[in-house]
């Protein structure tokens, strides 16, 4: 009798379970073109680019375990997520202390922290209640050396004692604007500027928010999506608080 060799023999010895050695490897995504386009939209220093490369690598590794970004956006991670986050820096170029609410996969907060790593005294507070995502953010901050401080708690808990030095508050895809302003109000009333990326429905969100808030805001064009806008908030007073979901 001829002895069986290779994967079939290994399969039998393991009681019918397929060996991990025979599982097909996932094909890496070619991000070269998307990366180049993102850097044309939002140029960065060589040092910042090195940190962003490390950030993308660790994010795609963790993405296999937890959902950090939509699977459909992975091939465009540099333009859809990295450049989309970096563009906020031009709207508050001197700010040292940032607060990012609902940081999730690190957008925009961790990306901004990567860009500010060369600036002495800069710090970005990342607020994320999901324990797995908070763990990812801590690992990404460690790997990149970005000046990011992760707060693994609900936004309401964090804002009971917000950082007094906060100059900018950001949030991306967190909540409709009326509700988002309710979350951010403790920082905004202390003088922080709000930078909130929004999609093509931004006008209707502003109309709804105006039912509850006296808003001093302008809309900045997005570099990454011609239909998107960034709400730049400079003043806010409550009329009546909107209900939170």
Report on this model:
Helix 2 packs parallel to helix 4 and helix 8 crosses helix 9. The N terminus is likely disordered. The protein has one domain: 3-Layer(aba) Sandwich (Rossmann fold). It is built from 9 helices and 7 strands; from the N terminus they run ααααβαβαβαβαβαββ. It is globular and about 50 Å long. The chain has a 7-stranded mixed beta sheet, sandwiched between helices. Helices cover 37% and strands 18% of the residues. The relative contact order is 0.11. By secondary structure, it is an alpha/beta fold.
What does this entry show, briefly?
This protein is α/β, with parallel strands linked by helices. It contains nine helices and seven strands, in the order ααααβαβαβαβαβαββ.
């Amino acid at each position: 009798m001829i002895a069986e060799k290779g994967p079939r023999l290994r399969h039998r010895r393991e009681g019918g379970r397929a060996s991990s050695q025979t599982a097909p490897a996932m094909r890496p995504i070619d991000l070269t073109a998307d990366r180049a386009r993102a850097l044309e939209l939002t140029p960065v220093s060589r040092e910042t680019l090195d940190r962003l490369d490390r950030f993308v690598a660790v994010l795609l590794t963790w993405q296999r375990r937890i959902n950090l970004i939509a699977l459909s956006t992975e091939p465009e991670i540099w333009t859809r997520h990295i450049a989309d986050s970096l563009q906020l820096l031009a709207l508050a170029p001197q700010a040292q202390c940032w607060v990012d609410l609902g940081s999730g996969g690190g957008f925009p907060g961790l990306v901004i922290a990567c860009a500010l790593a060369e600036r002495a005294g800069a710090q970005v507070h990342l607020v994320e209640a999901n324990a797995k995502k908070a763990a990812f953010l801590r690992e990404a901050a460690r790997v990149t050396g970005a000046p990011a401080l992760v707060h693994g708690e609900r936004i309401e808990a964090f804002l009971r004692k917000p950082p007094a030095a906060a100059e900018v508050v950001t949030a991306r895809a967190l909540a409709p604007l009326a509700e988002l302003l309710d979350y951010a109000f403790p920082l905004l009333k202390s003088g922080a500027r709000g930078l909130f990326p929004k999609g093509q429905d931004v006008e209707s969100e502003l109309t709804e928010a105006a039912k509850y808030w006296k808003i001093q805001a302008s809309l900045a064009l997005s570099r990454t999506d011609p239909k998107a806008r960034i709400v730049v908030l400079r003043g806010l007073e409550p009329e009546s608080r909107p209900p939170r979901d």
